Amino acid sequence: MADKKKNGRCYLVGTGPGDLGLVTLRAKQLIERAEVLVYDYLCNPEMLAWAPTSAEVIYVGKKAGAHTLKQEEINALLVEKTRAGLEVLRLKGGDPFLFGRGGEEALALAQAQLQFEVVAGVTSAIAAPAYAGIPVTQRGVTSHVTFFTGHEDPEKVESSIDFAALAQLGGTQVMLMGVERIERIVQQMRENGVRADLPVALVRWGTTGRQRVLKGTLENIVQRVADENFEPPAVAVFGDVVSLGEKLNWAAERPLAGKRIVVTRTRKQAGALSLRLRDLGAEVMELPTIRIDPPSDLRAFAELVQDAHGYDWIVFTSPNGVTAFFEMFFKLYDDARDIGGARIAAIGPATAARVREFHLKVDLQPEEFVAEGVVKAFKKEGDVENLRILIARAEEARDLLPKELGALGAIVDVAFAYRTVAETDDPTEARTRLANDGADMITFTSSSTVENFLALGLTWPSGMEVASIGPITSRTVRARGLTIAVEAPQHDVPGLVDAIRRHYEKS
């Protein structure tokens, strides 16, 4: 390909079957630096949050009966953007070369003498059955698997699938994109001698929190699809390996399987909560309602940080406060020892862990992860009269901590390290997805996430419950007329996730 023009490059990227954990490292690296992203209906939109804010994002989704762009138009779009000298990512569900029409797009780029690269992806043909507990091959059952598409070129007069050969071959047969044609497919298989009691499984939205599995036999699967109103997208598995799903159905046994949960934390912080929920089988919808901005008076904050060595204690109330403090500190000083003899207090294990990342010891960590807990802990420490205490916190935080410590005789200064503001960007279109698809639960990790979510004016989905990280957040939730279904007794992300898990285990 040495003769190709070097004015742009297009990457045909397989994004896997839907589970974000199955996106390849190569795909993620490319998304993080892309200038243009052209994505499909089957791509998990959450991955768009990895893209630069400057990237142009174009949806070209195609599903049964609804095409945003025809294939020829998509080909032309890729050629146009690549020829313009841009780094273009064509994001395709599954693998781009397995019934994904990636070959046609590659040919269009090759004919235009443009550079391109193919990034293989995990195909739903294997992953979806695996998440339903169905191995497509199994020693003693079958040693071969055949893939075919149920969605052929509509302009073809006759099918190119040799159903007689398929019937003779046997083994496991996996069909992609054919649920709406299942009656015709089954008829062809039966007419070519495939036995009526052959096990069949349909896996819809495989590997995601929306996964749904429908099982039957060749004899009754068409009726079952009609009775259950089972719709695409789905993968169909024909073969005796389907029966193994009864014993190996690991994904459905996860405690949050089938639950759609909204995470409202900042985009940077959402990952820790989202990962834990996904590990338990939930479909996570990240809908950040706040973002962290510098404080209104950055100079005043810098002056307090500069004088940090003169304090007896520095109190951090959140990981964000720790981050903001030390980002400023190391702009002013080159050596961590310049913090002097100040002792450090931290609310909550996450805040303490962030302090330790700077190789500093946490001298005081209250049992309760709230301001009241810090006051109790200082009382246990002894007399704080005339001690100088610096509190690094958000502008919007409650004044309880400085007031209570001041009442005990301490000399308290408050360093406004950051402020939380409403998040206005929605690159993954989570707000639209919430309106269209609803959710089972929404998580609030601070009062500001509550206030800013409600300020969006979104319609509250039917049946969506509220999970709160602790009593301060819950107080705001109740003040806004909402009911708490879950409140974490341990006021941090692990505690919140555990409380959600126990809630659904009881129900």
Overall mean pLDDT score?
Answer: 92
Name the strands of the widest sheet in spatial order. Answer: 3-2-6-1-7
Largest sheet: 5 strands, parallel
Instruction: Please state roughly what percent of the residues sit in beta strands, choosing from under 5%, 5-15%, 15-25%, 25-35%, 35-45% or over 45%.
Output: 15-25%
Radius of gyration: 28 Å
- The CATH class of the largest domain, by name, is Alpha Beta
User: What assembly state would you assign to the polypeptide chains in this entry?
Assistant: single chain
**CA(first)-CA(last) distance:** 59 Å
Q: How many domains, in number, for the residues?
A: 4
Task: Tell the overall outline.
Answer: elongated
**Helix percentage range:** 25-40%
CATH topology of the largest domain: Rossmann fold
Classify the secondary structure makeup into a structural class. Answer: alpha/beta
List segments where confidence is low: pLDDT < 50 over at least 5 consecutive residues.
none
Proper CATH architecture of the largest domain: 3-Layer(aba) Sandwich
* Record field, number of beta strands: 22
What is the number of helices? 18
